């Protein structure tokens, strides 16, 4: 699997190349997303546009033909507000 993180501002469309296919992740205008680690739990704090954006990202990963292991890295320099801890959204179809 090949994944190239693409740093870009919040109001843009990101394309991540994965094994020759392309996954398109779109950000709603004015999306604000912050991820905090509180020790025993993680808090994802977002405005309405940020929640729609995250929902869209999850729907892209849940789409037909998306392979097991496809993922998107979100960090404070790539879609999340400053001070956020990193968040990886990953498709996992294998049973544990």
Q: What's the helix and strand layout?
A:
Blueprint: E1 13-18, E2 21-26, E3 33-37, E4 42-46, H1 48-61, E5 71-74, E6 87-90
Antiparallel strand pairs: 1-2, 3-4, 5-6
In short:
The protein has 96 residues and is α+β, with helices and mostly antiparallel strands. Helix content is 15%, strand content 31%.
Describe this structure in words.
This protein starts with 12 loop residues before the first strand and ends in a 6-residue tail after the last strand. The radius of gyration is 13 Å and the shape is globular. The chain is built from 1 helix and 6 strands, in the order ββββαββ. The relative contact order is 0.22. It has 96 residues and is an alpha+beta fold. The model is unreliable at 1-10 (pLDDT under 50). The protein has a two-stranded antiparallel sheet with strand order 1-2. A two-stranded antiparallel sheet has the order 3-4. The chain has a two-stranded antiparallel sheet with strand order 5-6.
Q: Categorize the overall geometry.
A: globular
Number of helices: 1
How much of the sequence lies in strands comes to 25-35%
Give the H and E element order: EEEEHEE
Number of strands: 6
Largest sheet: 2 strands, antiparallel
Q: N- to C-terminal separation?
A: 20 Å
Q: Provide the structure class.
A: alpha+beta
Overall mean pLDDT: 83
Cα-atom radius of gyration: 13 Å
Helix content: 10-25%
């Amino acid at each position: 699997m090949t994944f190239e993180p693409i740093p870009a501002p919040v109001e843009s469309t990101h394309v991540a190349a994965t094994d020759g296919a392309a996954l398109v992740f779109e950000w709603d205008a004015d999306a604000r997303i912050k991820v905090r680690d509180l020790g025993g739990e993680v808090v994802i704090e977002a405005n309405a546009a940020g929640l729609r954006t995250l929902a869209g990202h999850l729907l892209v990963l849940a789409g037909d033909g998306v392979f097991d292991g496809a993922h998107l890295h979100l960090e404070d320099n790539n879609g999340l507000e400053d001070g956020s801890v990193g968040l990886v959204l990953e498709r996992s179809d294998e049973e544990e």
